[in-house]
Amino acid sequence: MKKLLSGNEALARGAWEAGVRAAFGYPGTPSTEILENLVKYDGPYCEWSPNEKVAMEAAAGAAIGGARSMVTMKLVGLNVAADPMMTLSYIGVVGGMVIVVADDPGMNSSQTEQDTRHYARLAKLPVLEPGSAVECREYMMKAFDISEKYRCPVIIRTTTCVSHSRFLCEVGERQASRDSAFEHNPSQFCPLPIWGRKLRRDVEERMVAQAAEACGSALNQESKRGTKLGIISSSVAALHCLDAFPEASVLKLGWAWPFPDELIRDFASRMDRIAVIEEGDPILEEHVKSLGIACDGKNVTPRCGELTPIVIQGVKARLEGAEAPVAKPVADANDLPGRPPMLCAGCPHRGIFFGLTKYDVIVTGDIGCYSLGVFPPLSRTDTILCMGGGFTVAHGMVQAGEKRPVVGIVGDSTFFHSGMTGLLNMVYNQGKAILIVVDNRTTAMTGHQDHPGTGRTLMGKPTAEASIEKIAEACGVKRIRVVNPYDLKQVDDVLKESLAADEMTLIISRAPCILKERRQLGPKPSVDTAACKKCKACLKLGCPAIELSDAKAAPSVNSSLCIGCGLCVQTCKFGAMK
Amino acid sequence: MLMDCNLLCFMYVKRFFRVCSTHGFKMLKNVMLCGVGGQGILFAAKIIAAAAELSGYDVTTNELHGMAQRGGSVTAQVRFGDGFHSPLFREGEADVLCALEPVEGLRCAHWLKADGKAAVSAQRLIPVTVSTGRATYPADLDERLVRSFKTLKYIDCCAIALKLGDLRLANTVMVGALSGWLGLPESSWQAAVERSVKTGLVENNMAALKAGQEA
Questions:
Q1: Architecture in CATH of A2-216
Q2: What local confidence, expressed as pLDDT, does residue A422 receive?
Q3: Quick count: other Cβ atoms within 10 Å of Cβ A466?
Q4: Helix/strand number for chain A, H first, E second
Q5: Does the pLDDT of residue B198 top 90, yes or no?
Q6: A residues 159-188 near B, CB within 8 Å?
Q7: pLDDT tens for each residue of A556-574
Q8: What does the pLDDT look like over B101-151, one tens digit per residue?
Q9: Per-residue model confidence (pLDDT) at position B69
């Protein structure tokens, strides 16, 4: 039977068929749907962990105990989870363990464009790179086998395009899964120096064996066509190349690391010219060159961004010494208004950002929907570093003598991910800033996943609801304020008194995400054009439901978008919005 | 003029192969969809892909998720037919464009082939860049659309959907509008709708599809 599955759905299907017993992860585009789909199947235990490090460690525990496990995250999540992964590579696993990392070439929804293959080399772990959903399912099953054979985790690296493209996939039935049944073996699982040095040597031997196996693996495939040009590629870029270079042979490396040297040498020996076309950093290219094989690579391929078909067409042109094609919009599209993403109509975050526009403060932001507070007209975010950075960057500025008040913002899911430690640090080291948790009761940006504060697990079970207030109290925060972000006066009062206070304040701005709740908050206002003075105060909210198509006219409310949050009614001094 | 019988046969065989090369053995259709995050572009892509799959074609789709969903410009691609590997096609290769918002349609017009066809919704969504005075929404939008698309169905799908009793049917109306351009049998569209919506909504969506076809 064939099913039209996205890469992420196929990864979930492959893991399920392979008998995965337990799966862990933290949501992050483009990886989120893997666990969201796996949980729909009977059998595996699935969870959202508070962060990627916790997820990696839990998956390690399951696999050390002998069960098959999986952990999923986006590229930047692996930075958080890197610590356990490095040691896990040494001590190894008993049950198969797959680490799925979704990269984001083109930075569609990520703050960096880092190439996870570097991590595979650093951790000395094999990396498989499926290019389609069909391969996502197959590679996942193969990854569990490789993992158990070599007793080490296997990394599957996808990209946004691979994770979010749908293909017709063959599907099968589930293999039996094993529970954890741990066996005591300290020289394997406790890397004290006396045992660790042996484990270190084992890793090197393992890689030699893996490179040999990769040379004959069906994961590495050659499409035999002409011999004038041979392309070495991986992932979806290889599929683009198969379409764009009908005459060229393509060596598609699905198991690219440890490098299958003999395979590469053999392929290159049969070709007049070699080009390495890879998305991300020139990892394959540099290795091919180190084998003494001359090749084109990043001299004709961009280092940054996604290798889309038009970009590949440019690579082809450069290889042929021709001019690269440019995708030009039609003439009538040259002056179109931009349409950046923004906070939804009725978003509870808007009240906080609007409240902050009144004060000369520095706002250190974080990762989530509230990153959108950076855009005009709110323009109320000054820095975005990483998950949890909203609190810690504020702290560092204050401790370094910053004269302006600093406000640090994190979301609720981010608070549990890594905001808590920053809060603890500020209390402990007597920092003084205003910290705000914009608590919309969900992980909103990635599509409404549960977290430790929602009182529900990924598997739909009711559970303890972690209290941000009580955690803050336990850390030693004295000033804690909970505000309703739809009440602009309340927001302003709390901001004013907090700025005047001589100690740190934690403000919890609490109202559920309207995209999740999908309910009307109040009556939809309309503009009384006679009373409207066209002062445009309401437009400073940056609400998509308040439209102004002619600069001289009065604004109007788009009733299909408005959910009646009432912020615009509160901003109108003339009573025209009612 | 009387024609030699052999020559006549030869011409028919030649024509048969030409027909096969465009509609039979080597067929590839690229559909580009665009709109504003939250409009339901993925749902439209899902129905088109299902119709292609149910017609027996190999099919792929590509969608952009994530940050762009919050009211930003979004696109999706659907490919079906044979002889392709990548789920993506490039600018200038789309046979059909489906735009759920007219400005987004213009923004993606260059994805169409020279003889490509466009179905564009007349529902205007004013971007916040316009509302805050940093950009203007084109006043001559209709003229621009006519200039930019050789074959254009410019449809007030929201009005049609409201007439059918549910604004949420607007996307299905748009899919209906382009359905005739893809060479898929009517039965596949029916089955695609049945597969893509809840049982109680099939009838409404079929009515919307039909209304789109006739628009």
A1: 3-Layer(aba) Sandwich (3.40)
A2: 98
A3: 17
A4: 21, 21
A5: yes
A6: 160-161, 164-168
A7: 999 988 999 999 999 999 9
A8: 999 999 999 999 999 999 999 999 988 889 888 899 999 999 999 999 999
A9: 63
Locate A298 and state its tokens. 């990043």
Interface of B with A in 24-63 (CB under 8 A): 36-38, 49-50, 53, 58-63
B22 pLDDT tier (thresholds 50, 70, 90):
very low
What average pLDDT does the segment A156-172 reach? 98
For chain A, give every domain's residue range.
2-216, 220-319, 349-517, 520-578
Mean pLDDT, rounded, for A327-333: 94
**Could you tell me which chain A residue has the CA closest to the CA of B37?**
A341
pLDDT band at A333 (very low <50, low <70, confident <90, very high): very high
Q: State how far residue B137 is from chain A, nearest Cα, in angstroms.
A: 6
Interface confidence, given as ipTM, is 0.93
The model's confidence at residue B71, banded by pLDDT at 50, 70 and 90, is confident
Residue B43 and residue A435: Cα distance in Å, rounded? Answer: 40
Q: What is the mean pLDDT of residues A300-324?
A: 96
Residue A398 tokens read as 């204050």
Q: Chain A 319-348, CB below 8 Å of chain B: which residues?
A: 327-330, 332-333, 335-344
Report the C-alpha dihedral over residues A454, A457, A460, A461, rounded to 10 degrees.
Answer: -90
In degrees rounded to 5, what are phi and psi of residue A228?
Answer: -70, -40
Q: Are A85 and A153 in contact (CB under 8 A)?
A: yes
Contact B155, B119 (CB under 8 A): yes
CB atoms < 10 A from the CB of A528, how many? 14
Q: What is the DSSP string of B100-147?
A: SSHHHHHHTGGGEEEEEEEEEE------HHHHTTSS---TTHHHHHHH
Nearest CA of chain A to the CA of B177: how many Å? 23
Residues of A in contact with B138 (CB under 8 A): 332, 335-336
CA distances from A117 to A32, A101, A126, A257, B196 (A): 20, 10, 9, 8, 38
Same fold, A220-319 and A520-578: no
Nearest Cα of chain B lies from the Cα of A196 at a distance, in angstroms, of: 42
**CB contact at 8 A, B208 and B172:** yes
CA angle A537, A361, A469 (to 5 degrees): 100
The CATH number, out of the four listed (3.20.20.370, 3.30.930.10, 3.40.50.720, 3.30.70.20), of the domain defined by the range A520-578: 3.30.70.20
* Residue among B56, B54, B32 at smallest CA distance from B117: B32
What crossing angle do the helices spanning B170-179 and B186-196 adopt, rounded to 10°?
A: 160
Task: Note the pTM of the prediction, 2 decimals.
Answer: 0.95
CATH topology of domain A349-517: Rossmann fold (3.40.50)
Question: Which residue matches tokens 């021709």?
Answer: A322
Q: pLDDT, tens digit, for every residue of A41-64?
A: 999 999 999 999 999 999 999 999
